[in-house]
Each structure stands twice: as structure tokens, then as C-alpha cells.
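Q: C-alpha cells for this one, please.
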Amino acid sequence: MARSGISRVKTGCITCKIRRIKCDEAHPACRRCVTTGRACDGYSTPSTASYSWAQLLRSSPTPSPAATHAAGELRALGFFREVVAPVLAGPLDGFFWTHLVIQFTHQEQAARHAVLAISSLYENLQQGFARLPLIEKNALAVKHYNEAIRQLRNTNSQEAVLLVCILFTCIDMLRGDCEGAVSHCRHGINMVAGNRVDSTVVRDQLLPAFYRMAIFPFFFGARPESFPEITTRHPHKPTTFWTIAEAQCSLDPLVLQVIRFVRSADEYRLGQWTNDEPGMMALRERVSLDTALDEWAKAFHAYQGQKSPQHDPNDMRTQIVERLLGMKWLVAKIWIDTCLSRGEMVYDLHLDKFRAIIELARQAEARRQALRDVRASPKFSFEMGFGPLLAFVVIKCRSLRLRVAALSLMKTLAYRRESLWENGTMIASGTRTIEVEHGLQGGLDIKQEASSDDEALPSEEQRIQDSITLNEEQTVTSHDGGIILQQRVAYLMRRPGESITVRDEWYSLAA
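A: Here is the predicted structure, written as C-alpha cells:
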């Protein structure tokens, strides 16, 4: 039988420990020392090792809800700063997101809560995008979104209101809410147009962001006659560029003017052959925009050839942006040169530009491969990047070889979603467009068609002038028994001299 041991007291005041007597452990001085007239020397702090696990766990304070809440916000802000902000600009310079937005989260509660909503939505994106991911599925994002709206009513800062408007647009893009994103963009542009720009932050950072952001609505239902125009004059003119940022800030307003003109020409392009020809005012505006694009290109080529501390030709990231701007310029040139033509054969006159777009994209892809890092294949970019530009080649270039090359590059260069453009949907829609125009009954074989002859171009009546994605889906069973989700689309086509006809088609969406 084991011996019964004697329990020795290891706690107590220092004086009682020295005297080897039991201490009543009263604080701040034990009563035994006080009643006997001795000076109590107090208590030593025991090491952690002297406590049992039960004592440690029992004595650990439970974090208050406020402390837990603050820790969660700090984590979300850290996630935004380290993971989300660096990719939101896509291949473009990310200063707006990585510096300006971060700065405003420390100054404005509305910006802070909007960023927390963005961080939460981005983190919870699944491997693939839902067609319309809803914010209601993310209670934390809902909470911060509503709080950002509430806090915005308490600020008189023009800078804060405009910046948060951009953040709200980003939130709606992450949600897949097209109407909401366009509405917030419209609201922000109305504020820009209705106020004097007397702040360097607005002029140098926010205004350029609005010029870029104002482009996407015209691809998602906005019309130039009803969508507000940014009337504030932008400071960067296409004379001399010392940095890639200056070149970008000069091109974006120009591209915005071009797309507004192109959309205003849709009524003529898709109208009856008997409609009046464009007036002199429209023709002069087109010439003016075409000339401005040429002036920008001249200044841009001079920038690329210069040797200065601001221009490092060995900077891979700058080279990628240079190629993106070159592609955007080429697309704008094709737009402005074709938008007043009713026939689709006019695009064949620009095969050299389509080839140049593909070559620039290949160069960008080679440089991206050399820079492959943790930012590779992000889920979302607020900015329009390579995807929509390459999708334009897929849709409007009738060289099968170039179309297939553009499809392949979309799979490696484009983000999964850029602004409101979903790359998988653009690839699926573009693939079906190629199959219809080239009469590929067995479907598109990318490897086989990659070496196709440029001369085998579809006839005018085979070509699609425009398309409208309809709000209708269906599921079909594949040959191997799998389920395929398909989207309905209406193709607008016509024979020369005849009216538009509508051809209903379905294209398969990625699983």
C-alpha cells in the first residue's frame, strides 16, 4: 500500500515561507504577519510551470466579444492588405489599392467597413464563380456593407465619398450584381461631374480610377445618351510620357470617349440599310478620335524608346503593362475604324492589328511566366485586363488561327473575373461564336485549328454582327452521362442589304 504523504503548502507570503508556517494568504499583507507584528514581505509571482493546467485554464480570462470582434477586423484588414489589394488592379499599377485605399481605412470608417466587406467577399469565393454570388450568403459582408453606407452619411469629405463609391462598385462586382455596379459607377460619375476638382488626391488618384471604371458599363447595358459623362478635363495629354502611369492616364479617357462613340453608333450599325448615313458631326468626331489615338501612339512609342530613370526597359511588370496598353490602343483603333460600317467584312481590313494584338499578348504571357509568383491566377481583378481585349479578337477577327490563339491566351493571361467579365463565360461564348461562323458541326478542336489557313474566312451572311445573352439556362446530358449547363444567346445576323435576323443558340458553361 502506498504511503500517505504530507501535503506541503507551496504558496503564501515570503515571510511565512521563510518561517515555514501556514499563511492565510490575505492581500495585500497576510493577517498572520500583521497580528504578530511582523512585516509581511508580500508574495512572489510563481513561474508558469508551478501552475497546473487546470489552474492555468481556469485563470485565463475569456476574451470579450469586443476584443474578438476587433481581432477579426484586424485579420480581415491584414488579408486585404497582403492578399486582395495587390491583385485588384490586375496587371496595372496597384498604388490606388495598396496605398490610397489602405490609408483611407485609417481615416474614414466608411472606407474601413467597405474594405472589410471586400475582404470577406474575396476570401469566401469558391474555386469557381457562381453565376451570381449573393452578398446575403455572407453575413459579415452584409454587416460591413450596411455599416459603410451608414458611416458615409457622416462624412463631408469629397475624397472619402468618391473613394467609397469605387469600393461599393467593387463590392457589387464581387457579388456579380451588374445593375448595382453600374448604378454605383453612375452615382460616382455624377458626383465627379457636379463638383469642382480641387484636391490633388481626387485629381491624381480618384479621377483616373473613374475614367477606367466608366468603361465597363457600356458593355453591360449602359447607353451614352443616358449614362453621365466625365466632363472634368484630365491633366495628362498625349505629348510626352515619362512614366507608364502617365501613358495609362492619357489612354483611359481616350478609350472611354471611343467606346461612348461606338455605342452611339450602334443604332446606325445595326439599323436598316435604308437609314440615313451618319452626319458630318459624327464623321468629324470619329476623325478627331482617330487622330487623338495616333497622337497617343506617337508619344507612347517615344516613351518606350527613351532612356530615363523612370523607364527601366528591364522591368518585367512595366513591360507587361506596356503590352496591355498597346493591345487596348489597337482594339480602340479597330473600334473607331469599324463602328460606322454595317457589314462585318470591314474587320478583315484589320487583320494586321489582330495579329499585333496576339503578338503583344504572347509577349506579355512570356514575361508573366518569368515573373510567376504567389499573385498568379488570382480570382478577381477590379480592372479590365487582358481577357476582354482577347475576347474581342475571338469575336471580331475571322482568322480561325488567330481566334484559336486568342482563346488559348485567355486561359493563361486573363483573371477568372475582370470587372464584370467572367473569363469562363467569354471563352464558352467565343467558342460557340467560332463554331457557328466557321460551320464547325463537330465542335472546335483547338489543336487542329491552330494551323488553319487565314484565307478561309467566313462569308458575310455567316458572320454574327452582335449578340444578346438571354436570362435562360438549361441542362443537357453529355455523351459520357455528365450534366452540362448551357446558356441561351441570341445572335444578330443578316445578309447584305437585308434586315437583321435573330438566331437562337446555346453555349456550354464551364462546370
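A few notes: The beta strands are 417-418, 421-422, 466-477, 483-493, 501-508. Residues 280-305 form the longest helix (26 residues).
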